[in-house]
Amino acid sequence: MALLNILEYPDPRLHKIAAPVAAVTPEIRQFVRDLAETMYTAPGVGLAATQVDVHKRIIVIDVSETKSELLTLINPEILSAEGEDENEEGCLSVPGYFDRVRRAARIRFRALSYDGQWFERDADGLLAVCVQHEMDHLIGKVFVEYLSPLKQQRLKSKAKKRQRLVG
Ligand code: NI
After folding, report:
1. What value does the mean pLDDT take over residues 88-106?
2. Residue 18 C-alpha to ligand 1 middle, in angstroms?
3. Which of 21, 76, 141, 144 lies 20 to 30 Å from 104 when distance is taken between CA atoms?
4. What share of the chain is helix, strand, coil (3-state, %, to 5)?
5. Does residue 89 have an active-site annotation?
6. CA of 142 to the centre of ligand 1 (A)
7. Which CATH superfamily is domain 12-166 in?
8. pLDDT of 118-152, one tens digit each?
9. How many CA atoms are closer than 13 Å to the CA of 121, on its beta-carbon side?
10. How far is the CA of 117 from the centre of ligand 1 (A)?
11. Domain spans of the chain?
C-alpha cells in the first residue's frame, strides 16, 4: 500500500471535476486501499480521490470511533435530502481550519461498494455531513467556498504565507 499526497487549498487541482468510474477493477480497488490508508494516517474521517489528484468519483469515509467501519463510495449519488443542519467542518486539504457549514440534515444515497455492488443507505449526523462534504470534492468544491469572500481571501493569503515559509 502507498500513502498518497494530499493537495492543499487553494491548489487549482482541487477544483477539477471527477469522472465516473467505468468498472471496479483490481486497479481501482488498489487505489481505494491506498486512499483509505492515507485517510487513516492523516488522520481524517473522509477523503475524496480529488484530494489526492485522482479525478475519479471515489470516496472513503470512516466516522466510527474505533476506525473499523470503512465505507467506500464509488460513483455516489444523493437520492433524497431533507432538513437543514449547521455543523463545524474541517478538511484534510485545509489543515488547521474549521468553520460552520449548513447542509441537509438527512440524506439517502446510493453508490457502488468496494466489491462493485450498488447499495443504498440513509444517513444523518456526522455521516450525512461527511458524505455531502466528500461529494462536493468530486465536483471541485472545497467546504471553505461556502464561507464569506472575506474569510476565503484570508485563508488564501495564509496558505501563501505558509508556502513561502516552507520554501
Ligand atoms: Ni474535505
Report:
1. 97
2. 14
3. 21
4. 35, 25, 35
5. no
6. 6
7. Peptide deformylase (3.90.45.10)
8. 999 999 999 999 999 999 999 999 999 999 999 99
9. 15
10. 25
11. 12-166
The rounded distance, in Å, linking the Cα atoms of 123 and 80 is 11
Q: Per residue in 5-60, pLDDT tens?
A: 999 999 999 999 999 999 999 999 999 999 999 999 999 999 999 999 999 999 99
Catalytic-role residue among 69, 77, 89, 134: 134
Distance 153 CA to ligand 1 centre (A): 18
C-alpha closest to that of 129 among 76, 63, 64, 70: 63
pTM for the full model? 0.96
Least Cα distance to 70 among 47, 87, 53, 93 occurs for 47
User: 92 CA to middle of ligand 1, Å?
Assistant: 6
